[in-house]
């Protein structure tokens, strides 16, 4: 019995793979969930400090006004909005709403466009 020659390992170039729009929305949903999970204790501590006194509120506001903190707040705002929108999209698809390929692609695009826009609005509203 002849065996075929062993196959050499193939280098999988992830940068060259073109993901479908639904996969991008799904991966971003998972990334947003991880970011929210990691940030939750920090956000809870900041909320606690801001609610204890006026001085605590002022300290948290000053802490969040630096450029690095604004970028962090923008990222967390995006994570929250994207995770909610993509989660609703997944739940609707689980019950059969929008699970057809064309509608699934449209809803993925909508989530990917709406999440940064809504996060920016949320951030601007929160900083004023």
Question: Overview of this structure, please?
Answer:
The chain has 128 residues and is an all-alpha fold. The chain has a single domain (21-127), classed as Fumarate reductase/succinate dehydrogenase, transmembrane subunit (3 helical TM bundles of succinate and fumarate reductases). Helices cover 76% and strands 0% of the residues. The protein has helices at residues 21-52, 54-63, 67-94, 101-127. The longest helix has 32 residues, at 21-52. The radius of gyration is 21 Å and the shape is elongated.
Features:
mainly alpha; 3 helical TM bundles of succinate and fumarate reductases; 128 residues
Q: In summary, what is this structure?
A:
The protein has helices at residues 21-52, 54-63, 67-94, 101-127.
Number of domains: 1
What helical percentage do the residues reach?
over 70%
Beta content comes to under 5%
CATH H-level name... which superfamily?
Answer: Fumarate reductase/succinate dehydrogenase, transmembrane subunit
Instruction: Characterize the biggest β-sheet.
Output: none
User: Over all CA atoms, what is the radius of gyration?
Assistant: 21 Å
Shape: elongated
CATH C-level:
Mainly Alpha
In N-to-C order, the SSE pattern is: HHHH
CATH architecture assignment name: Up-down Bundle
How confident is the prediction overall: mean pLDDT?
A: 92
- Terminal Cα separation, in Å? 77 Å
- Low-confidence runs (pLDDT<50, min 5 residues)? none
């Amino acid at each position: 019995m002849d065996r075929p020659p062993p196959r050499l390992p193939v280098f999988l170039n992830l940068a060259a793979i073109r993901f479908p729009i639904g996969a991008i929305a799904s991966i971003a949903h998972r990334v947003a969930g991880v970011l929210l999970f990691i940030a939750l204790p920090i956000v809870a501590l900041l909320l606690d400090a801001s609610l204890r006194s006026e001085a605590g509120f002022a300290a948290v506001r000053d802490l969040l006004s630096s450029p690095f903190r604004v970028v962090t707040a923008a990222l967390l705002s995006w994570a929250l909005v994207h995770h909610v929108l993509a989660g609703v999209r997944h739940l609707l698809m689980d019950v059969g709403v929008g699970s057809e390929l064309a509608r699934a692609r449209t809803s993925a695009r909508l989530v990917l466009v709406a999440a940064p826009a809504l996060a920016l609005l949320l951030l601007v509203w929160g900083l004023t």
